[in-house]
Structures are given as C-alpha cells and as structure tokens.
Amino acid sequence: MAKYVSPELYNKYARQILEMGLAIQCYEGTTAVRETSSLSDQEIADRLGLDVEDVTEIRCIAEIDLLPADAWLESDNWKREKARKHFKKG
Amino acid sequence: MNAEEEIKQFALQKGADAAGIASVADINHYAPPGHRPDDILIGAKSVVVLAGYSAFQGAWHSPDHRTHYYNRDFPRIRLSAAAAVSRLIESRYGYYSLAETPPSLGFNPCLSHKLCAEMAGLGTRSLAAAMVLNPKLGMPSFSICITTMPLKADGPMTEPVCPHPSCVKLWEKHRTTPCLDICPECLSGEIEGERIKWMRYDRRICTTRAQTESASSWLRTLLEAANEPDPGVRKNIFLGSSSRLNMAAITSGAVFGQCGWCLINCPVCMQARTLKAIEPTSTTAEDSH
Fold first, then answer.
1. Which one of B65, B157, B263 would you mutate to disrupt binding with A, by most A Cβ within 10 Å of its Cβ?
2. Quick check: B218 and B169 in contact, CB under 8 A?
3. pLDDT on residue B286
4. Taking the mean position of all CA atoms in its chain, how far away is CA B41?
5. Quick check: A55 and A14 in contact, CB under 8 A?
6. Which residue range is the domain that position B187 belongs to?
7. Residues B176 and B142 in one domain
8. Are residues B98 and B133 in the same domain?
9. A19: part of which helix (H) or strand (E)?
10. CA distance A15 to chain B (A)
11. How many structural domains comprise chain B?
C-alpha cells in the first residue's frame, strides 16, 4: 500500500535516494557494482535508517520530479534529429 | 527428448526465437533479496527464459523515429508464450509455474529479466546501457516462466557478445565505440583488450528517451499543468500534441523501448537486423503453402 511521505522528508532525501538506486548503474566488466548505487529500496532504507515504504515513495516521486518538465520533449527532439541525420547520410 | 528440450522446443513453437533455462540459485547470486524468483514463487528452482526479436527488421528502416516501437514483434506475444510454457509445465509435469511478475515500480523491476536472460545463456551485457545482446537476435525482448520444476540450467555464455571485434578495433584507434559515440549523455565506459573494463549507465536521461511517451511523461505533464497559473497555457498543455501522444502510447501499451539509438550502429544489432532477400522459386512458392 502506498504511503504518504511528507515534503520535508522527500526534499531531504530525494536526490540521495535516486542516486543510490538504479538511476546510476556502474559495472566492473559486466558485473554490477552495488556498493553506493544500484541498490534495492530495502538496501537503501537499511543504509539511511528509513522505512522501506518511505524510500519507495520518495524514489517513485523523484524519478519523475527531479527531471526538468521539458526533458521528455527534448528527448523527442533529440531522437527526431538523430533519425533525420541517420537517414540523410544513407 | 528430455524435459528441458521439450520445454524449449515448445517455447519456440509458441513464437519465441530462442529459449534458455536459468537456475534460481544462479540468479539469486546477483539479485538482491526481494527481487528474486523465489520471492515471487515459493520454492522456485528454475526460470525458463524466452527471447525474440524486439521489432520487425523493417521498423529500423523508417525515417520516423517512432516506427520501431509501434512495430513490436516478440513483445506482442511474449507474455502469452510464457503463459503457454507455464501451462505446459503445470499440466504435463505437475510443477507450479507462473509467467508474469508483479509490476515494476518505477526504475525497480520486481525481477530483472536481463539477469534471468544472462543466467540462461541468452546473451551478455553490453556497453549500451548494460542491455543484454544476443549474437543472433541483437537486442532481444524477453519473457520468463518461473517454476518449481528443477531443470538443468544452460548457464551463462562463456564468451561475451560485446564488444564486437570491430568495436575493439575502433576503441584501439579512437577510444570510442558506436554506442558510446551516439549517446555520451547516458553511456560511458572503457574496453581493455577484448573485454569491457568498466561501464556506467545514467538512466535518468535515458528514461526520457526510452519512455518519451509514457505514464511518467504524462504524470510530469499533469504536474506542470496543475501548477500553471495561466488557464490558456494550461489548456495548451493538456490538449497539445505531447499529451495526445502520451495518451496514444499509454492506451496502446507502446510505452517502453522508444529509443534504441545507442544500438543503431551496433555491429551485433546491425547483423541481426539485416535481411537478405530470397528470390522466390517454384519450390519456395510450394513450400510456403
């Protein structure tokens, strides 16, 4: 069940929780390095001393919130431009 | 034919282009608690992994960058194929099975299909966002059947698919590869010898490209519209093309894999996408009937 998280808790941990999760993935060779990133919500909660429900809620919000609103439009333009250049050069 | 061969053959008959078996023990070596096959099915011993082409090859020959994710091949049938395998195992062998996991929550999958595919020998991780590449299928789409049936696992591939020999040469000359070159915002890494030395994948920008039209994009749009004080601007946000395309993607289910530009010049994927026209003969015409 989703848990309401206060704006204060969210603002305090949003960036940190996002970066400790799957937003940034580091690999040695092809093996994921799971020391400071690529952690599960439970692992993040254990390290930060938070409830896992709070971590999940904060992560879910931050994944969308911490991107600029026009990031998706910019990405669409990026892909359109890539396609145009790719097929132009044949 | 043993059980493993029968199950894999059955998966191919149901539309998969390849099938493999992973042991839950192998998967659990890498997957964190809470995201393991036996967290979903109690007593799970094996995962049957099905793989198929992500899109029709023609979809990559369209100047419209949206064509490929509206032309899904195996993704259209992958769940029903996995469900059929699940049904086969339950009815023929009497072991509990299931074909769908609870939904992912944002970036966190319930169970990593890429990891299952690796452990089933269906591909290896690549420099391109650690996506699993298969030598025949390029970048496949996957579905899984988790089962309590103890099956002989195929195990991971012994030789990596990435880097391709041409990428090794390119790295030696220019310290780059096609995927790193086309998407430096999301990808970084190094090759040493004929192996990936390290790699880093920033999913934050990638997700806006891979899911440009999606629930995430729509929710962000909703937030912007709700916070917009000018009613005219608010209306334009709600009714503009971005909102409408989001709705089209969400309602049709075409909300994932909307980029793939990192792999457009990948030699492994290019080989997988290349078709050679077959001249029809009277024999081939008869065969097709």
1. B65
2. no
3. 52
4. 22
5. no
6. 165-203+262-272
7. no
8. yes
9. helix A7-20
10. 12
11. 3
- Chain centroid to Cα B174, Å, comes to 29
Instruction: Answer yes or no: do B29 and B136 share one domain.
Output: yes
- For chain A, the structural domain boundaries read 7-89
Task: With respect to residue B155, please indicate whether it lies within any of the assigned structural domains.
Answer: no
| Whether pLDDT at B78 is above 60 | yes
Read off the pTM: 0.92
Where do we find the tokens 């792999």?
B263
pLDDT at B48: 98
Q: Can you read off the two tokens belonging to residue B96?
A: 């509990």
Specify the amino acid at residue B275. L
- Residue B277 located in a structural domain: no
Integer Cα distance of B135 and B120 in angstroms: 14
B197 min Cα distance to partner chain A (Å): 5
With respect to residue B154, please indicate whether it lies within any of the assigned structural domains: no
Contacts of B191 (CB under 8 A, 6+ apart): B127, B163, B167, B168, B171, B177, B197
Would an 8 Å CB–CB cutoff place A25 in contact with chain B?
yes
Instruction: Evaluate whether A71 touches B207 at the Cβ level (below 8 Å).
Output: no
The pairing of strands B195-202 and B140-147 is unpaired
Chain A nearest C-alpha distance from B163 (Å): 11
In tens, the pLDDT along B81-90 reads 999 999 999 9
For residue range B216-251, list pLDDT tens digits in order.
Answer: 999 999 999 999 999 999 999 999 998 999 999 899
**Are the Cβ atoms of B223 and A28 closer than 8 angstroms?**
no
Q: Does A45 touch chain B (CB under 8 A)?
A: no
Looking at the fold, whether B132 and B186 belong to one and the same domain comes out as: no
pLDDT band at A3; cut points 50, 70, 90: confident
